[in-house]
Specification:
With 256 residues, this protein is α/β, with parallel strands linked by helices. It is 47% helix and 14% strand. The chain has helices spanning 2-20, 35-41, 46-66, 86-104, 107-111, 127-140, 156-172, 183-187, 237-249; strands at residues 27-31, 71-78, 114-119, 146-154, 202-205, 224-227.
């Protein structure tokens, strides 16, 4: 066992050295999948899975700081998740509120000048969560060195619908002509319009599922997709490094 642990550490150090000498993705988006399945495998309640998943997010922020990843977008709660049974959803809301309050007091946010913003149909969330999200937005709105986006009550199709509605209002009030609608105009009306780079370089999904489930439908057009057969609560630094190495091994042409 000690020998395996020693080999693991050697492999980790070697891998870290390798990726540090390559291009680190500027914007990494993650679909945090597998909390409930992890809990089921552990013969415990879904609440425990979500708790372990929240712990994994805190570790992730440390690792992203180490590698100086500038933009992180986390898919934490889909619009469809709001249809879950009341008891589980209430537990999830309570956990989200507690962790957001902890994030508000996290020194990493201010040390890294990190803007924290929720993306999605935030109006569907409980008042307690909306309040702490507003506090986070207010206290970090002038930060522009790093960005943490938390997708809550998010749906990719909803994002496009909301963008079209915003553009429709501009056309209706005469501030935008139809012929002036272009890619830039659409991007300026998406949930990610505040970012210096709205398109992720890499999108990582855990749990073995190989689909984006509507996540960042517009922004993901040229993102590198990495799917890992590990449940989110089990996610380790070495898994992030493996994903970055996979990203570095690909030749990105961006359609050219």
């Amino acid at each position: 066992m000690c020998q395996i642990s020693g080999l693991y550490k050697i492999y980790g150090k070697r891998l870290e050295h390798e990726i540090q000498n390559g291009d680190i993705p500027n914007h990494v988006a993650l679909i945090l999948d597998g909390n409930r399945r992890w809990a089921k495998r552990q013969l415990t309640m879904p609440k425990k899975g979500h708790l372990k998943g929240a712990d994994a997010v805190e570790n992730l922020l440390d690792w992203c700081e180490e590698f100086d990843i500038k933009i992180i977008t986390l898919y934490a709660l889909s619009a469809e998740n709001l249809d879950r049974n009341d008891a589980e959803l209430e537990d999830l809301f309570e956990l989200i509120r507690i962790r957001l309050e902890k994030l508000f007091n996290d020194p990493r946010i201010h040390r890294n000048k990190m803007r924290v913003k929720a993306i999605g149909r935030i109006e569907l969330l409980p008042e307690s969560i909306k309040n702490i999200l507003k506090q986070l937005d207010d206290v970090t709105k002038n930060y522009d060195k790093h960005f943490l986006n938390i997708a809550l009550a998010y749906g990719g199709q909803n994002e496009l619908v909301d963008a079209i509605k915003k553009i429709g209002v501009k056309i209706k009030d005469g501030t935008l002509n139809i012929e002036d609608i272009n890619k830039g105009e659409i991007e300026s009306n998406l949930y990610t319009s505040h970012l210096p780079q709205s398109s992720p370089d890499m999108i990582l999904r855990t749990s073995g599922e190989k689909r984006l489930s509507g996540f960042l439908m517009w922004q993901s057009a040229y993102s590198e997709l990495v799917f890992m057969d590990i449940f989110w609560p089990e996610f380790r630094k070495i898994d992030l490094m493996r994903a970055i190495r996979t990203y570095q091994e690909r030749k990105r042409r961006i359609g050219k």
